């Protein structure tokens, strides 16, 4: 009884649990499958490489599979999951620490405490998310710390990076969280960043999620983005993210004229430019055919102080240069040349030229032995303001002029400077005519220095221009006595700093080497056009919309005004009263309205008639390719009747010259009789050809004929001069009256020129022109226009 009650009590419980067991079992099975799938991710199997393979093999396999399974190129439904697995496998194997953990423990985890969570995956709309793959910002243990030292902030970028970009280019990456492509390019970015940083390229990283203001300031609207910064100008990288493309991108940022190729033919000219450029010249001898990127970056950093040349020692034509300076062709050699080009001022050789070595070498040779003061910045660097007693620097300035007359004094001053080089002394010279205010501050109007050179010893006291100085009592001639006097003054200055008893205030020097305003404006315009061109093809269209809107609005207003003006002129012309129009007609054809009353209503716009000769040169343009709706009215004449007929023709057609659809020409019968007779064969026996040879056939007189030729529709109308008997009323053969046509068809030939009055040949041509514009004349169609020749 008790057992039965117990069984009855358990019955409902068992019935309630029965439907839930399959659901729990299904959840457990799915969870186990997911965990097993995560644990079974073998990066070697995914990439198809063996365990002992090199990094080059891993990278090669990853590139091949990434191209094959990229979701943008592979439309397979599982391409996205496969692509993520490939990326994850490459992330593990490209990192030596993760690869070692996987080989040792079968897992790439970095910490034991995190191992319980790193197998947690997210599935969302077919995309695979893995916390260890995305480096979540709240998971600081898993974030990559290699970019932290390159992170940029807005104030740091504006105040430090932009000014520094005038000394070296910067390569900046824009990244963010939840960015697949950011992780894909990470290995290449790390490699290139480390390589370029050693060469002197600035590296920066901007996190768009934390530095939105800076990302917007840079113009980056998507991640990842890579850009270059040089001279304050931003240039975006648009190619595939590989090492070679990034190196070439940085190299293209640099100006193209930084380093000059030097050979036996041009090395004297190159080294002799020190006087014109006021800079020492540097030569690098190396066995590489192309200029190394390190050398280009160095030339950019020191471009304001030094000029750079490159000698490829393996090139034929550099043997004399290498022999003269005793160059070891197997070791890179760098030489600095100053005022003397026959021997270098300083030399450095090293099998592996490092940036630090080059910087130390060049920083000690930035100036000439007796540099010319050409701008204020150079004056401040050569003669700095004293801050402490031990930092005193005195400048010995030669005030001279250009020309052979003063060259001897300059050479003597240069020799003295080379012999007395010290850290506390700087020797410089200046041209009085180019810096007159500087020279007048020391010499004034003293007559003993007129037309001669002078030497001044000075010390800058503050940045406002105050200096203490001492001028040599006599003009500098460069003699032995002058050398002893100057040397004695320098010895007194070393023992007694108050020796410089005079003081004055100097104004800023003129920038002698600055380009003219027009040249600066031209280069600025070119840079602006280049920026606009680059923005047009590569910038975000959302950013370009305001500029495009402004451009199209201006074009719309411009062309709208022109079109409205054109229609206004047309309406005014239509409203004008008809000129010399005596009657109207309703016989005009509807399919050819270009020669209607509107054309006739135009009054003459010129005081003359423009008549051109129809020749083989203008035949196509004046007839064959004549625009639709236009006609060419051609007068037939000969050499003997040319003057008389042209005068009469001009009088008859003058009132019709206001029509823009009519053109007027004349054809010389002596040159093109065959062309005319061929055309007249289609004019309904207007020019009949006799059955038998007629000796008078070639003497047929066509002078005074007028043809209205429509080149587009291939037809013509014909005006024939009236015969003497019909002077009173005949209009010509192109009219609807066919009596004259049949009369001549019966064999009556035209009269000779001697028997016909020339002044009556074009009688009533104006009436024929009226009917031509009305469209009531008979038209003679031809299959094609014959060649005029």
Helix content range of the residues, please? 40-55%
Structural Rg: 47 Å
Number of helices: 29
Cα(first) to Cα(last) distance is: 134 Å
Structural shape: flat
- According to DSSP, the number of beta strands is 23
Can you give the mean pLDDT?
78
In terms of per-residue confidence, which ranges show pLDDT below 50 for 5 or more consecutive residues?
A: 1-19, 110-143, 572-601, 686-697, 725-755
Proportion of residues in extended strands: 5-15%
The profile of the biggest β sheet is:
6 strands, mixed
- Across the major sheet, the strand order is 12-14-13-15-16-17
Structural classification: alpha/beta
Summarize the structure.
The protein is an alpha/beta fold and 789 residues long. The protein is built from 29 helices and 23 strands.
Can you give a write-up of this model?
This is DnaJ homolog subfamily C member 16. The chain is α/β, with parallel strands linked by helices. 41% of the residues lie in helices and 15% in strands. Helix 4 packs antiparallel against helix 5 and helix 5 crosses helix 6. The model is unreliable at 1-19, 110-143, 572-601, 686-697 and 725-755 (pLDDT under 50).
Topology:
Elements: H1 2-17, H2 20-39, H3 43-47, H4 55-69, H5 79-94, H6 96-105, E1 121-124, E2 127-130, H7 131-134, H8 154-164, E3 170-175, H9 180-184, H10 186-199, E4 202-207, H11 212-218, E5 225-230, E6 233-236, H12 243-253, E7 259-261, H13 267-272, H14 274-277, E8 281-286, H15 293-301, E9 307-312, H16 319-324, E10 333-337, E11 346-349, H17 355-363, E12 371-372, H18 376-382, E13 394-400, H19 407-419, E14 425-431, H20 436-443, E15 454-460, E16 466-471, H21 480-495, E17 502-505, H22 517-538, H23 541-575, H24 597-600, E18 611-613, H25 619-624, E19 631-637, H26 642-653, E20 662-668, H27 669-680, E21 706-710, E22 715-719, H28 739-745, H29 765-774, E23 780-781
Parallel strand pairs: 3-4, 7-9, 8-9, 12-14, 13-14, 18-20, 19-20
Antiparallel strand pairs: 1-2, 3-5, 5-6, 8-10, 10-11, 13-15, 15-16, 16-17, 19-21, 21-22, 22-23
Helix pairs in contact: 4-5, 5-6
Function: Plays an important role in regulating the size of autophagosomes during the formation process.
Biased composition (Basic and acidic residues): 571-592
Membrane topology: Single-pass type IV membrane protein
């Amino acid at each position: 009884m008790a057992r039965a009650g117990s069984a009855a009590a358990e019955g409902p419980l068992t019935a309630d649990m029965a439907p839930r067991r399959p659901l729990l079992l299904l959840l457990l099975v799915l969870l186990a499958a997911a965990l097993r799938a995560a644990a079974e991710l073998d990066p070697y199997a995914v990439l198809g490489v063996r365990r002992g393979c090199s990094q080059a093999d891993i990278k090669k396999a990853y590139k091949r599979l990434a191209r094959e399974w990229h979701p943008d190129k592979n439309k397979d439904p599982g391409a996205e999951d496969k692509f993520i697995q490939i990326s994850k496998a490459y992330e593990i194997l490209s990192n030596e620490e993760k690869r070692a953990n996987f080989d040792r423990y079968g897992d790439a985890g970095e910490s034991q405490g995190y191992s319980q969570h790193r197998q947690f995956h997210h599935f969302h709309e077919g995309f695979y998310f893995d916390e260890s793959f995305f480096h979540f910002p709240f998971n600081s243990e898993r974030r990559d710390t290699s970019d932290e030292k390159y992170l940029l902030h807005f104030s740091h970028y504006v105040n430090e990076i932009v000014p520094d970009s005038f000394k070296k280019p910067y390569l900046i990456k824009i990244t963010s969280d939840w960015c697949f492509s950011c992780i894909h390019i990470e290995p290449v970015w790390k490699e290139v960043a480390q390589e370029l940083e050693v060469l002197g390229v600035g590296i920066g990283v901007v996190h768009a999620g934390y530095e939105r203001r800076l990302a917007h300031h840079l113009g980056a609207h998507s991640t990842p983005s890579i850009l270059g910064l040089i001279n304050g100008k931003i240039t975006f990288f648009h190619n595939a993210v590989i090492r070679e493309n990034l190196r070439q991108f940085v190299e293209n940022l640099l100006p193209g004229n930084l380093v000059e190729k030097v050979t036996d033919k041009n090395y004297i000219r190159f080294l002799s430019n020190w006087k014109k450029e006021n800079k020492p010249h540097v030569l690098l001898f190396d066995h590489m055919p192309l200029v190394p990127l390190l050398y280009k970056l160095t030339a950019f950093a020191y471009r304001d102080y030094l000029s750079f040349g490159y000698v490829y020692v393996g090139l034929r034509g550099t043997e004399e240069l290498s022999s003269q300076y005793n160059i070891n062709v197997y070791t890179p050699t760098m030489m600095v040349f100053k005022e003397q080009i026959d021997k270098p001022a300083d030399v450095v050789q090293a099998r592996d030229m490092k940036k630090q070595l080059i910087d130390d070498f060049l920083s000690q040779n930035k100036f000439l032995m007796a540099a010319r003061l050409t701008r204020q910045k150079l004056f401040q660097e050569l003669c700095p303001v004293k801050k402490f007693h031990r930092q005193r620097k005195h400048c010995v300035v030669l005030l001279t002029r250009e020309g052979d007359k003063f060259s001897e004094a300059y050479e003597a001053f240069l020799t003295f400077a080379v012999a007395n080089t010290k850290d506390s002394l700087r020797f410089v010279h200046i041209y009085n005519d180019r810096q007159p205010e500087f020279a007048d501050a020391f010499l004034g109007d003293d007559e003993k220095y007129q037309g001669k050179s002078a030497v001044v010893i000075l010390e800058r006291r503050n940045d406002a221009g105050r200096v203490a100085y001492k001028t040599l009592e006599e003009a500098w001639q460069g003699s032995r006595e002058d050398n002893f006097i100057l040397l004695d003054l320098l010895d007194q200055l070393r023992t007694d700093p108050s020796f410089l008893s005079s003081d004055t205030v100097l104004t800023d020097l003129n920038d002698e080497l600055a380009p003219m305003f027009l040249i600066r404006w031209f280069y600025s315009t070119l840079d602006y056009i280049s920026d606009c061109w680059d923005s047009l093809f590569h910038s975000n269209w959302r950013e370009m919309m305001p500029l495009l809107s402004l451009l199209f609005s201006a074009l719309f207003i411009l062309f709208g005004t022109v079109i409205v003006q054109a229609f206004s002129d047309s309406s005014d012309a239509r409203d004008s009263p008809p000129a010399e129009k005596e009657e109207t007609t309703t016989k005009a054809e509807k399919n050819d309205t270009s020669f209607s009353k509107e054309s006739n209503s135009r009054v003459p716009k010129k005081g003359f008639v423009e008549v051109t000769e129809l020749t083989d040169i203008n035949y196509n343009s004046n007839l064959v390719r004549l625009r639709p709706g236009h006609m060419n009215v051609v007068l037939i004449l000969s050499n003997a009747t040319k003057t008389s007929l042209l005068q009469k023709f001009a009088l008859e057609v003058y009132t019709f010259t206001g029509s823009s659809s009519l053109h007027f020409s004349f054809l010389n019968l002596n040159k093109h009789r065959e062309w005319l007779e061929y055309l007249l064969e289609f004019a309904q026996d207007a020019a009949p050809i006799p059955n038998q040879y007629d000796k008078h056939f070639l003497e047929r007189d066509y002078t005074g004929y007028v043809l209205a030729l429509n080149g587009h529709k291939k037809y013509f109308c014909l005006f024939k001069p009236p015969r003497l008997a019909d002077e009173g009323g005949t209009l010509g053969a192109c009219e609807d009256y066919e009596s004259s046509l049949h009369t001549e068809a019966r064999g009556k030939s035209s009269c000779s020129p001697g028997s016909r009055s020339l002044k009556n040949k074009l009688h009533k041509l104006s009436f024929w022109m009226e009917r031509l514009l009305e469209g009531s004349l008979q038209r003679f169609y031809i299959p094609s226009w014959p060649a005029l020749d």
